[in-house]
Specification:
Blueprint lengths: L2 H10 L7 E2 L5 E3 L2 E2 H8 L3 E5 H18 L3 E6 L6 H9 L3 E4 L2 H9 L7 E3 L6 H10 L3 E4 L2 H10 L4 E8 L21 E2 H12 L4 E7 L12 H9 L6 E3 L17 H15 L5 E4 L3 H4 L3 E11 L5 E4 L8 H5 L5 E3 L7 E6 L8 E8 L7 E5 L20 E5 L2 E6 L4 H5 L7
Parallel strand pairs: 4-20, 5-6, 5-13, 6-7, 7-8, 8-9, 9-10, 9-11, 11-12, 12-13, 15-17
Antiparallel strand pairs: 1-2, 2-3, 4-14, 14-15, 14-19, 16-19, 17-18, 20-21
Helix pairs in contact: 3-10, 6-7, 9-10
């Protein structure tokens, strides 16, 4: 096997399952030639392998049902809050969690059953809570005493709630996405959680169904979940235990996350030891449901320098903030020359020195006009997209069995100007 063939095979393993190189050397994802997608919808472009997302949802669901009869999963929708993706999750029969009014609106527009929606947030406004209550949101997660005060004022009948608990566990992940440790801005420490639970038990409007935890994101080991589950178990017996999400995904060659089956079984091993056997267990995967199945396409605009050699594309931090925020490593390829090549710095077009997509990424003879595909961009890239430097947020195309469909169009100058208020 030549070095280029080996490099191509390794790289394809980071793209959605079944990705391949066509007879003319062009990269194909979900049966669609990426060059054809770029020719139709331009770049930057978010591409999602719809079939692979559906298969991943089914994989999680089967593993969870096999391990704990009274269980359900919801999609942590902040990973990719797109109406078409909410519709996909609804069609797969699962709920979603939302953390803002726009996410709730899209979930409802996408046909998600309100009873299967979980509402999060450490700063829920009275207006947001009223909207959730009016919509019939199934569970609202109590993050603080103010949530209780506001819901007591708003609710006229009964609203099921969970209490978010800080279990005091710090997973091995980037500081910005670790949420289970002491000092986290999310949830209540154990003593404060006990007090909130005691208060809710006496409420005639809020029905305490159970407790919630979420220790962080992009976690590549199941080990921190055991002490976290044990910590919330110490708060007593409840009807519901929401264990959150956080399972990491494979962005680069050295990442080795547990499989969905292994991650779920690790959670359930501890649950069987410490939680009531008839309780409902909820999990909230987000990144791991979508990240591996998204690809971002860019067009090379300029190439310059030797050490380092800069390859600049027509996107960047306005459509991928994960690098700047979390130091996340990605991998990429020229779509017509897959794998191999000399190392270059793939950089964006925005007015920040930190607008670097990938430092030291191998690209084979990159030239202006080439199409570059970045793998594993299905989580938090679309979510965090912005209009920095007047960038128009990219469109989203779902692909399945060789059939692409546009689900979000590209922003336009008219969109960009539509919120301006003109006048004397």
């Amino acid at each position: 096997m030549t070095a280029d063939i080996s490099a191509s095979a390794d790289l394809l393993g980071l793209f959605p399952p079944g990705s391949r190189v066509d007879s003319d050397g062009e990269l194909v994802v979900a049966g669609c030639r990426l060059a054809d997608l770029a020719a139709t919808w331009g770049t930057p472009l978010f591409v999602v392998d719809e079939g692979a997302v559906r298969a991943q949802v089914g994989r999680f669901g089967r593993a969870l049902a096999a391990g704990w009869e009274n269980s359900r999963m919801v999609f942590a929708s902040k990973a990719f809050p797109c109406t078409a993706l909410y519709r996909l999750m609804a069609s797969e029969g699962i709920g979603v969690d939302v953390a803002g009014p726009g996410e709730l609106a899209m979930a409802l527009a996408g046909g998600v059953d309100p009873a299967l929606i979980i509402m999060h947030g450490n700063a829920k406004t009275p207006e947001e809570l009223q909207t959730a209550v009016d919509a019939g949101v199934g569970l609202i997660v109590i993050d603080n005493d103010d949530d209780i005060d506001r819901l007591e004022d708003l609710v006229t009948s009964e609203q099921p709630v969970l209490v978010r608990v800080i279990p005091g566990v710090r997973p091995d992940t980037h500081e910005a996405v670790a949420t289970g440790q002491a000092g986290s801005k999310f949830g209540l420490p154990i003593p404060a959680a006990r007090a909130a639970i005691a208060r809710l038990r006496h409420s005639d409007k809020l029905r305490l169904d159970g407790v919630h935890m979420h220790i962080g994101s992009q976690i590549l080991s199941p080990e921190p979940y055991a002490p976290a589950i044990e910590a919330i178990a110490g708060l007593g017996e409840f009807a519901v235990y929401d264990l959150g999400g956080g399972l990491g995904t494979r962005y680069t060659y050295t990442d080795d996350p547990p499989s969905p089956e292994d991650w779920i079984e690790a959670l359930l091993v501890t649950a069987r030891k410490h939680l009531p056997p008839d309780a409902q267990i909820i999990i909230e995967p987000g990144r791991s449901l979508v990240a591996p199945f998204g690809v971002t396409l860019y067009r090379v605009v300029s190439v310059k320098g030797d050490d380092p050699r800069f390859v600049a594309v027509n996107g960047g931090m306005a459509d991928n903030m994960e690098v700047a925020l979390y130091d996340q490593r990605f991998e990429a390829t020229v779509t017509s020359r897959v794998g191999g090549g000399d190392r270059v710095d793939l950089v964006g077009r925005h007015c920040e020195s930190g607008d670097r997509l990938i430092n030291g990424v191998p690209l084979r003879d990159p030239r202006p006009g080439d199409l570059v595909a970045v793998a594993a961009t299905g989580a938090y890239c679309y979510s965090l997209a912005s209009n920095y430097n007047g960038a128009m947020r990219p469109p989203v195309v779902f692909c399945k069995d060789g059939q692409p469909r546009l689900v979000v169009r590209r922003e336009t100058i008219a969109d960009f100007l539509s919120r301006d208020v003109t006048g004397p």
